[in-house]
Specification:
Shape: elongated
Number of helices: 0
Helix content: under 10%
Number of strands: 5
Largest sheet: 5 strands, antiparallel
Structural class: mainly beta
């Protein structure tokens, strides 16, 4: 399953964001393995001097929401060294011209 999609439903400016903290509240639908789930995350959006835009977001995905169950202690017992953590950390950086 090499393909995942995110459909942006809404992006709202965070009121009075502190310097260095996310300034947009983003909502959308993430699809992986044919399973769709609503997502909510915070992102930092900056307009650059050359007119381009940079977007950065850091968030965790719980892989079990998309039926990726292999090695999950919530679904299987006695995994020992075969335990696979459910959370996947994503660091996303996008530059657009």
């Amino acid at each position: 399953f090499p393909k995942a999609t995110f459909i942006l439903d809404a992006a709202e400016v965070v009121e009075s964001p502190t310097l260095g903290l996310p300034n947009f509240d983003v909502k959308g639908t993430f699809e992986l393995r044919g399973v769709k789930a609503d997502m909510h995350l915070l992102a930092t959006v900056n307009r650059r001097v050359d007119g381009s835009v940079s977007i950065e977001a850091h968030f965790d995905l719980d892989r079990t929401r998309w039926d990726v169950l292999y090695g999950s202690s919530r679904f299987f017992e006695h995994l020992g060294m075969h335990l696979v953590y459910d959370l996947i950390t994503i660091e996303l950086r996008v530059f657009a011209h």
